[in-house]
Design goal:
The chain is of the alpha/beta class. It has two domains: 171 residues, Rossmann fold (3-Layer(aba) Sandwich); 91 residues, no CATH class. The protein has an eight-stranded mixed β-sheet with strand order 3-2-1-4-5-6-7-8. Helix 1 crosses helix 2 and helix 6 crosses helix 7. The longest helix has 17 residues. The termini are far apart.
Length: 271
Amino acid sequence: MGARTGTKPVGAVTRGTTNPNRLRRQDRWIAHTLAPALRRAGALSSGGPVAVDLGYGAAPWTAVELYERLHAVRADVRVVGIEIEPERVLAAQRCARPPALTFRRGGFEVPLDGGERPLLIRAANVLRQYDEDQVAAAWERLCARLAPDGLLVEGTCDEIGRRQSWVALGPEGPRTLTLSTHLASLERPSDLAERLPKALIHRNVPGEPVHALLRDLDRAWASAAPYADFGVRQRWLATVRTIAPDWPLVDTHARHRLGELTLRWAAVAPR
């Protein structure tokens, strides 16, 4: 089970809903964004750099898939799936591949052997059940566990992963917001409103920056309707080009083609 098994985990049990490939969009973004840090991370006495899938749910698919996608970037990466529910940890052992992929009980304290600091903590659909005023403390606690160049990815998605959003945070706090969608099933960008991270989902009201972002995306999407003749991807790319002068985008054309949009957190932070 790992370190600190006698310590009561910090947090509450999640619903545990999970499906294979539900977090593929997050995995893909993480592998791309974290690749430079993964490659330059030095080998540790116990192995390679550590990534944590926090609150993986009733089945361990997301941790297994995260390991496979990060392993393609760095062969000696280790992924630790952490769950607060003992039965889920026990059930996940059938998928363990020690020391590369392991599972243990824990919560926001992120228990790792020897006090290791992970290069990544991914907490998907974990804070969704908490109150909005609990988010900042959870972020702070998780960020304090990161390695100096580590990344916390916290967000939410629908049941099959077609609509996703996440906040990326460093040890200093939030950096970016990413929206990611399956373009072929997208009616309008504001469809993503229901899958905003907990810090933003109740802020989609007039006067809040995230509301203005979704409004601008919807308007640009409507204006880009003629591009639909060339495919939904071209319509999305035209939408992104339209809003780019007014919003601090930090990703590239290649990421936009995947149905992604990443911008600086300061532009959408709650007022």
